[in-house]
Amino acid sequence: MSASDLDPDVRRDLQALDKPTADRVARHLVMASALLEEDPEQALEHARAARARAARIAVVRETAGIVAYSVGEWQEAISELRAARRMSGSDALLPLIADSERGLGQPERAVEIADSADAQALSGEAALEMAMVKAGAQMDLDEPEAAVRTLAAFDLNPGRVGTDAARLFFAYASALDAAGRRSDAVTWFQNAAAADVEDQTDAEFRLMELLDNGAEATIEPDSLPDSADTALRDMYDVLLLDLDGTLYTGAEVLPGAVEAVAATDGTALFVTNNASRSPDEVRDHLVSMGFAAEADQVVTSAQAGAELLAGIVEPGAAVLVVGSDALRAEVRARGLGVVASADEAPAAVIQGHSPDTGWAQLSEAALAIRSGAVWVATNVDSTLPTERGLMVGNGSMVAAVASATQRSPIVAGKPAAPIMRGALARAEARRPLMVGDRLDTDIEGANEVGIDSLLVLGGVTSGPELLAAEPALRPTYVADGLNALTSPRSASTFGPRPEWSVEVNAQHVSVASRAEGTPASLAAALAHAVWTADVGGFDLRIAAQDDVAERTLAALGLKALR
User: Fold this and answer.
1) CB burial class (10 A; 0-12, 13-18, 19+) of residue 127?
2) Do 312 and 405 lie in a common domain?
3) Integer Cα distance of 373 and 376 in angstroms
4) Last residue of a domain, which of 411, 446, 480?
5) Number of Cβ within a 10 Å radius of residue 55
6) Is-catalytic flag, 296?
C-alpha cells in the first residue's frame, strides 16, 4: 500500500509536514485502517508510528484514538481522542471517549459526559451513539429502567431497517430484558432482527435464547407487572398528570379523571405548563373540582423556569418578570430580584402566562432582551384550552417577543427537559408514566427524558396530528380517557386491532370495521399502520369502507372518502 491510497481530505491535513514525513505518516494511516479488523494489534502499532511523527495533526490523533479504542486500550484511547477533540474543535468523538470510560470501569463518568452540555448538543448519528453509550453505562450501574428511558427518546419505529435501526432496537431490547420486561424484550429483539439486513447484531441469537429459556425467565421481586393483560396503571409506579385538557377542560371535569387520581393514593404528580397559578392555587382548584390533591404534588412551569434561571444568573440578580404573581413569587423564592422595567438593567427576563400581559409588558421584555438579558420562557404552548375553546397561550406571546427581538428563549416547561427532570427528581420513580393531551408538550416532553406516555384524545390533539407525528412526538399509548388506566395495557397499545382492518398503499389508506370499536382503538390501529409504512408526512387519502368506519374516523377529526 502507498501514501496515495489515503483519503484525499486526510492527505490535505498532512500538508503541514514535509513531503517525506507526510508520505510516511500516510502509509502508516493506510495500514492502520487496512489491518484494523484482521490484525488490530498491528494496526495499533501503525497508528502509534503515525502519531510519533505527526502528533500535532488532529486526524492522526483521532486515528490513534479510534484504533486504541478498537483494541481495548482504553486509557490510550481517551488521551488520543481528547487531544483530537481539542485540535479539531469537534464533539463527534465524545461517544467514544465516554465508552472508553466505561471500558476503564467508570460508568458514572460515562453518564456524566453524556449529560454534559456538549454531548446534549450532538445530533444525528453522534447523538444516537452517545445515547447507546449512556444506556450501556446505566446498565453497568444496575439502572436498566434508566437505560430504557434513555433509548426510548429515539426513533423506535419498528418499520425502520438498516444498521443504525438494528443497533438501537438491539440496545433497547437488551435494556428491557435487564429490567425484567421480557415480553417487550422479545418484541424488540424481533424488530432488531428484522432491521438487521447487514447482520451486525446478535439479535436472532438473543431472541432464540430468550424463547428457549422462557420457562426459566424470572422477574426480580421488586419489578412491576409486565404483560398485555396487566392494567395500564399497574405497569407504572408514578403517574405524571397534565391538567388542562387531561383532567378537565375549563370548569368541566373529564370522565374518569377524579377516579383515576383517587386510585393513585396521593402518589401522582400534577405537571402543568400553566405558570399563572401557585402550587397552593392549583391544589385549591383541583380540590374544588373533586380531586384529591396536595400542593407538594404540583409541579409548575413557573417553578421549573425559576429554578432554571437561578442556575444561569448570579445570586440576587435582577429579573424582569412578565407573568403572574405566582411566577414572581417563585423567582423571589430563589434569591433573585424582581423588576418590571428594562430601564433597571435586568440580567434576565422570564416570561410566563398571565391574562394581564399586554403590549407594555411584552415591549419591556423585548427591550431588555435586545440589551443582552437572558430570556427564559416557562412554556411555549400556543393555545390554552378552556370550556369556550382554545384561547391564546403563553407560546403565542413568546412568539411576539421572538419576532421583535429575533431571539429564541430557553424553555423550562414541557416539552423541554427542565420541568420533566424536576418532576422525575421529586417523584423518585423507577417507572413513571406521563399522561397528557398534547403531542408537542406532554408527549414530546416524555420522550425528551425517555419515559412512557399516554395520549388522551379529546383535548388538543386530533387524528391528523397523531398520524403526522414525527417519532419524537409519538406516545406509547393512546386512549379516549383516563378510564384506560384501569383497563389492560393491550387496550391502549399501538398496533393492529381485531375490530379494524387497515390497509396502506402509499398515501392511500383503507379502513373497514370488523366489530364495534372506539375512536382510540382505531387511532391505535391506524397510527401503527401509517407509522410502520412511514407515510405520515403524506397528504393521506383515507377511505371508509362502511358507515361505522366513517363515523369513527369523523370522531378522530379525519374526513373519509366513500
Assistant:
1) middle
2) yes
3) 10
4) 411
5) 13
6) no
Alpha-carbon gap, residue 154 to 158, rounded angstroms: 12
Q: d(Cα 144, Cα 355) in Å, to the nearest integer?
A: 44
| Domains contained in the chain, number | 3
C-alpha–C-alpha distance, residues 275 and 323, integer Å: 8
Q: 498 is in which domain, residue-wise?
A: 494-561
What is the rounded CA–CA span in Å between residue 80 and residue 414? 39
Cα dihedral 302→304→308→313 (10° resolution): 30
The Cα–Cα gap between 40 and 47 comes to: 10
Q: Which residue reads 413513571 in cell numbers? A: 432
- Choose the catalytic residue: 177, 242, 452, 480: 242
Chain mean position to CA 390: 26
Pairing of strands 452-456, 432-436: parallel
On whether residue 337 sits in a domain, the answer given is: yes
- Element (H or E) spanning 384, and its range? strand 383-386
Q: What is d(CA 495, CA 514) in angstroms, rounded to the nearest whole number?
A: 15
Q: Is residue 485 part of a domain?
A: no
Last residue of a domain, one of 411, 427, 451: 411
> Which residue among 99, 177, 226, 244 is the active-site one?
244
Residue 192 lies in a domain: yes
Sheet holding 238-241, edge to edge: 298-300, 269-272, 238-241, 432-436, 452-456, 477-479
Total-model pTM: 0.61
Cα–Cα distance between 222 and 142 in angstroms, integer? 14
pLDDT tens series, the chain, 562 aa: 566 677 787 878 888 888 899 889 899 998 988 898 889 899 999 999 999 999 999 999 999 999 999 999 999 999 999 999 999 988 999 999 999 999 999 999 999 999 998 998 888 889 999 999 999 999 999 999 899 888 887 777 766 788 998 999 999 999 999 988 887 788 888 888 888 888 889 988 888 888 776 523 333 334 555 566 789 999 898 999 999 889 998 788 998 999 999 999 888 999 999 899 999 999 999 999 999 999 999 999 999 999 988 888 889 999 999 999 999 999 999 999 999 999 999 999 999 999 999 999 999 999 999 999 999 999 998 888 777 888 899 999 999 999 999 999 999 998 887 888 888 888 877 789 999 999 999 999 888 877 899 999 987 888 999 999 998 899 999 999 999 999 999 999 999 999 999 999 988 999 999 998 999 999 999 999 999 888 888 889 999 999 999 999 999 999 888 6
- Catalytic residue status for 242: yes
Count of other CB atoms within 10 angstroms of residue 87: 16
DSSP secondary structure string for all residues of 180-236:
T-HHHHHHHHHHHHHH-TT--S-HHHHHHHHHHTGGG----TTPPP-STTSBGGGG-
